[in-house]
Amino acid sequence: MVRKTSSTESSVTDAIIPSQDPGICQTPDATVRKTEKQIVLLIAILAGFITPFDGSAVNIALPTIGAEFHMDAIALSWVATAYLLSSAVFLVPFGKIADIYGRKKVFLYGIAIFSFASLAMTMVASTEMLIGIRIIQGMGSAMIFGTGVAIVTSVFPPGERGAALGIYITAVYIGLSSGPFLGGIMTQHLGWRSIFFVNVPIGIAAVLLILWKLKGEWAECRGEKFDLTGSAIYGLAVVTVMYGFSVLPDQKGALLIAAGIIGVIVFAFYEMRVPYPVLDIRLLTRNRVFALSNLSALISYSATFAVTFLLSLDLQYIKGFTPQHAGFILIVQPVVQAVISPVAGRLSDRIEPRLIASLGMAFTATGLFLLTFLTEATPVWYMIAALFVLGVGFGLFSSPNTNVIMSSVDKRFYGVASGMNGTMRLLGQMLSMGIAMMILAIVVGPVVITPEYYPQFLTSLRYAFLMFTIFCAIGVFASLARGKAGPAPRS
After folding, report:
1. What pLDDT score does 486 carry?
2. pLDDT at 8
3. CA–CA separation, 175 vs 302, rounded Å?
4. Neighbours of 431 (CB within 10 A)
5. Number of C-alpha atoms within 13 angstroms, CB side, residue 109?
6. Which of 173, 207, 394, 398 has the fewest CB atoms within 10 Å, measured from its CB?
7. What whole-number distance in Å separates Cα of residue 226 and Cα of residue 94?
8. Nearest of 238, 332, 288, 333 to residue 480 by alpha carbon
9. How far does Cα 452 stand from its chain's mean position?
10. Angle at 154 between CA 408 and CA 199, to 5 degrees
11. Is 96 in contact with 227 (CB distance < 8 Å)?
12. Distance CA 17, CA 211 (A)
């Protein structure tokens, strides 16, 4: 049983350690004090900052990395995609592992692995080594994101959860916003390896803070068996689909994508037949709010993630800007997101979250539509305006949508729900990069982007942004169709 304490004796340890009885999922019912909540949120903020910072800073450095290793456009996209692919493969499994063995433990190991891989990135000597270490980074990122939102949700009650998640997501957006800006400056003046080195002291600080201040543990499903077979099927299916995208328009690409989709279907049927699934499919089949909120997240990230990748190439190849100058422009979107997100999070505690999220999706679709008109002569102010609209849209969408997802499930599913939310984000990001890779492969081909290929490159940009606009327009209806969020149904 959960040990009860008086208000003067209660501690974060007492509040969150569940029953040690094997096979029993319990939820803590003690109240965590305000200062302890702030400690948890601070640690989550540090961890939430470093992974998006790394991703957005790497995007701005891709042309420089490509020049050093003589990489074509498809190979360059794999620098970003390998990280996302690894994160997506490990997110749901580590979310379940965290529910069984402890979220703090997985969170701590994740930050340590991510920081170690970041240090290793400063010493890479080949394309293969570069992509290999990005895979290890992705695994660390999965351990962080598979537990970070769950820990915050575990500590903050529903009336405070939207605001807390808004602050956490703001930290993510600060990482995104400072990535292009600082990444451009560091790439230009210190070299692209400096981008990865900056993660190391932040990671060390987060690890020390966890060991010093975070004394409790969250593990509501202690004693359950981990579904290794289901995790393997899931990972293989995701890898197959993504690799298929990278080799399109070759026939092998279509076959791989089809095989991956079949793998996902097999995974779903298998999960419904095992006693302790890595992903409880009932969360999707019996909980409409949870299912459609995750679908909305998938669509949103599918439509937006490749924007930074594509515009970074456009600004540096077509416009001839330096990495620093390109970073100044690309910073607009995440800065606006960082300003809007905490406001949207607080509003989602008072106003129906799906309405705020749906409005945000509509803004995002508008910003993407503006980018379909890019040409070689498009003025910079036009791109900045489109990025501003995108920032407003995603800032309004993300916090309320995350609040709905985490509030629509029982406490014992927080780790899995957090993992599912992160997986939708990463699958969406991979799908976004997959679409970009596919269009680049079809329109430009596996060549280094030089002035003679600029017209084809611009054509590929317009096709990509048009497809993303259509995705987001569909996403508005998916967001509205979820209905009002109610109490989490119990299985």
Report:
1. 46
2. 34
3. 20
4. 23
5. 14
6. 207
7. 10
8. 288
9. 35
10. 110
11. yes
12. 16
Angstrom distance (rounded) from CA 347 to CA 342: 9
What the block records as the tokens of 278 is: 């890595």
Residue 235 corresponds to which tokens in the numbers above? 């990972």
User: What phi, psi does 9 have (nearest 5°)?
Assistant: -100, -15
The tokens describing 292, both together, are: 């459609």
Name the class of domain 30-215+278-481. Answer: mainly alpha
- The secondary structure of 254-266 as a DSSP string is HHHHHHHHHHHHH
Burial class (CB in 10 A: 0-12, 13-18, 19+), 452: exposed
Q: Are 299 and 360 in contact (CB under 8 A)?
A: no
Task: Give whole-number Cα distances, 22 to 100, 104, 176, in Å.
Answer: 10, 19, 41
CA distances from 341 to 30, 165, 217, 335, 408 (A): 29, 9, 28, 10, 20
Q: Which residues of the chain have pLDDT under 50?
A: 1-31, 486-491
Contact 177, 57 (CB under 8 A): no
φ, ψ at 399 (rounded to 5°): -60, -50
Mapped onto helix, strand or coil, the DSSP state of residue 203 is helix
- Residue ranges of alpha helices (H) inside 156-250 are 158-189, 193-197, 199-213, 228-247
Burial of 87 (0-12, 13-18, 19+ CB in 10 A): buried
Give the C-alpha separation, 141 to 138, whole Å: 5
Task: Confirm if 297 and 421 have CB atoms less than 8 A apart.
Answer: yes
Report the candidate in 226, 233, 300 with the shortest Cα–Cα distance to residue 478.
300
DSSP letters spanning 104-165: HHHHHHHHHHHHHHHHHHTT--SHHHHHHHHHHHHHHHHHHHHHHHHHHHHHS-HHHHHHHH
Task: Quote the pLDDT of residue 440.
Answer: 82
- Six-digit token string for 185: 């400056």
List the domain boundaries for the chain. 30-215+278-481, 227-277
pLDDT at 483: 60
Query: Which residues have CB under 8 Å from 166's CB, separation 6+?
Result: 341, 342, 343, 344, 345, 346, 348, 399
By three-state DSSP, how is residue 218 classified?
A: coil
The set of residues, in sequence order, having a beta carbon less than 8 Å from that of 201 and lying 6+ positions away, is none
